Amino acid sequence: MSKADYITNQEIMLLLAKRIKEYRLAARMSQKEMAEKSGVSLATISHFEQGVNQNMPLNNFISLLRIIGMEQRISDLLPELPMPPMALKQLNKFILKRVRRNNNDTKS
């Protein structure tokens, strides 16, 4: 198992806050600018980045992701489930294994 398997919820939130801050700074954006663009209060952003606020509502977090252009990565967190084996088995029943031709098909 990797180190990521052992981290706590609090550590995950701190890591996310650190990453948000890194992306914000890479975009040369102040907390105030991020607040204005995202609609999330300056205090909330400041407290989140400092690790004070670890209960940020999901909609606020998504707003911050949008501002740094990372909202499309949300689907990476929970990818679509692969087809369950029983559903695949049912689907295979309908896939033709071979094509049968009658006499009319061979006369061309």
From TrEMBL:
One of its GO terms (molecular function) is DNA binding. It comes from the Bacteria. InterPro entries: Cro/C1-type_HTH (IPR001387), Lambda_DNA-bd_dom_sf (IPR010982). Residues 20-77 form the HTH cro/C1-type domain. Gene3D superfamilies: lambda repressor-like DNA-binding domains (1.10.260.40). SMART domains: HTH_XRE. This is Helix-turn-helix transcriptional regulator. It comes from Bacteroides fragilis.
